[in-house]
């Protein structure tokens, strides 16, 4: 009997024993094409010699030193590198161990900033209904996914949720993408005014929505308008790039493509590429300086913040992306993946939408293309597709999300940046087979 507390208690799992490029290998020798990098983690694939060597090298020098006493060379170098690549205005980096720690830190930093500027009445956080920001209680409160939140609701702080920017379902007939983007952003201003602008602390959003929606990009102009609204009312803008950042969409920060800078950005997943658990919260000089001049102490922290071996992994991942021109791969192979998905599913009666940026792609499954009606949640389609694909040797990320109160199914794809053309074809063929087998047996 296994004593590991697994994610799904009722299901024995294969034992992973190896990884090679885009494949994971289990103890029976079966190979799985990693079409989602776990959940958008393994951006370099498995067994990357450069990152492994960098981590080993750091462990040989020093494995751990508490950040209450020391900084370290890899932490300093990683922070410099992130700031050099980040949207303008982000000046400081707080290294953590994952995505939930990054968003939790961001929410607490926003609150402490206003306490230290003498505006403690700013306490409201606004987020979006179709979002996921992590599973710790603050991050979970910010997320809008009802299924993830439901049983923990009594433990969660109050957060306002506005509509997502979700053109497939919320853009009206005859409305341009730009007009829709402005209308969607307007909800933020309406909510700020409803709460009382002087009580609002921050707005948090994923630039390209991942787990809860399946790679939904924003409408053109949406985030520019969001930035304007935040500035008008002195509200901090937190962008959660935990899934879509670190090159996944074709630029190191996804928000570069929307032409804005946040006040706080969160990254994780692809930063360590699975070689070490690491995330980062980046913040503006103004926020940092306010605290530095004030209390001088961010009232937060976890034992492993700034871990040297994790920072060494992050640094080696960013070097690999730059030295090997992997952002170019993401753009070119992302276009190939998009084309392959459109060829396979463009006319599929149960695929309503194909979307995404770079190597961050999603398809949305519908019972009826004309009405966009989702499948009955009782069918548990997402879980069945995940199992069928896995059986066939494909790791992908099907999920159910909430669509205006209704549950719907999508599949998220986030393969390694090194995926090649034949692997893209194999991925799409296995996904197609799994979807057709499941829908054929279920409906
Ligand atoms: N934010 C986003 C956008 C995510 O997709 C996730 C994880 O899927 C998180 C935060 C939480 O990250 P972690 O699971 O590393 O805590």
Describe this structure in words.
The strands form three sheets. The protein has a seven-stranded mixed sheet, with helices on both faces. The chain is built from 14 helices and 15 strands. The model has no long low-confidence stretch (mean pLDDT 96). Strand 1 (16-20) and strand 2 (23-26) form a beta hairpin. 39% of the residues lie in helices and 18% in strands. It has 443 residues and is α/β, with parallel strands linked by helices. It starts with 15 loop residues before the first strand and ends with a helix. The chain folds into two domains: 16-47 and 325-441, Alpha-Beta Complex (Aspartate Aminotransferase, domain 1); 51-324, Type I PLP-dependent aspartate aminotransferase-like (Major domain) (Aspartate Aminotransferase, domain 2). The longest helix is centred in the last third of the chain and has 22 residues, at 421-442. The structure holds pyridoxal-5'-phosphate. Pyridoxal-5'-phosphate is lined by residues 39, 98-100, 103, 132-134, 206, 210-211, 240, 242-243, 268. The site of pyridoxal-5'-phosphate has 15 residues, from helix 4. One of its GO terms (molecular function) is transaminase activity. InterPro entries: Aminotrans_3, Aminotrans_3_PPA_site, PyrdxlP-dep_Trfase, PyrdxlP-dep_Trfase_major, PyrdxlP-dep_Trfase_small.
């Amino acid at each position: 009997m296994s004593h590991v507390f697994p994610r799904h208690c009722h299901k024995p799992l294969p034992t992973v024993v190896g990884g090679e490029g885009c494949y994971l290998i289990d103890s029976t020798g079966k190979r799985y094409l990693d079409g989602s990098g776990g959940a958008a983690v393994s951006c370099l694939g498995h067994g990357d010699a450069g990152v492994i060597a960098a981590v080993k090298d750091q462990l040989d020098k020093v494995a751990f030193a508490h950040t209450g006493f020391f900084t370290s060379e890899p932490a300093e170098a990683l922070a410099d590198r992130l700031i050099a690549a980040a949207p303008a205005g982000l000046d400081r980096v707080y290294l953590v161990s994952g995505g939930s720690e990054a968003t939790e830190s961001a929410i607490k930093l926003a609150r402490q900033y206003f306490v230290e500027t003498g505006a403690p009445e700013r306490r409201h956080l606004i987020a979006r209904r179709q979002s996921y920001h992590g599973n710790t209680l603050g991050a979970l409160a910010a997320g809008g996914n009802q299924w993830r939140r439901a049983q923990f609701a009594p433990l969660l702080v109050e957060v306002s949720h506005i509509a997502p920017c979700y053109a497939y379902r919320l853009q009206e007939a005859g409305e341009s993408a730009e007009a829709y983007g402005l209308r969607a952003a307007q909800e933020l201003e309406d909510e700020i005014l409803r709460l009382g602008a002087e009580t609002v602390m921050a707005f948090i959003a994923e630039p390209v929505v991942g787990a809860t929606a399946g790679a939904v990009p924003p409408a053109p102009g949406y985030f520019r308008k969001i930035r304007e609204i935040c500035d008008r009312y002195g509200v901090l803008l937190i962008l959660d790039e935990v899934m879509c950042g670190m090159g996944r969409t074709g630029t190191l920060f996804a928000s570069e493509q929307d032409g804005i800078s946040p006040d706080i950005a969160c990254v994780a997943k692809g930063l360590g590429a699975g070689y070490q658990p690491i995330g980062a919260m980046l913040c503006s000089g103004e926020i940092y300086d306010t605290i530095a001049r004030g209390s001088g102490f961010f009232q937060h922290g976890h034992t492993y913040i700034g871990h040297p071996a994790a920072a060494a992994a992050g640094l080696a991942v960013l070097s690999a992306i730059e030295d090997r021109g992997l952002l170019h791969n993401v753009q070119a192979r992302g276009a190939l993946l998009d084309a392959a998905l459109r060829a396979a599913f463009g006319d599929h009666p149960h695929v309503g939408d194909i979307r995404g940026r770079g190597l961050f792609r999603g398809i949305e499954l519908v019972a009826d293309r004309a009405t966009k009606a989702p499948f009955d949640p009782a069918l548990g389609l997402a879980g069945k597709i995940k199992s069928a694909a896995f059986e066939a040797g494909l790791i992908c990320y099907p999920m159910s999300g909430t669509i205006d109160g209704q549950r719907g199914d999508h599949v998220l794809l986030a393969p390694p940046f090194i995926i090649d053309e034949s692997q893209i074809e194999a991925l799409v063929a296995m996904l197609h087979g799994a979807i057709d087998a499941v829908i054929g047996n279920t409906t």
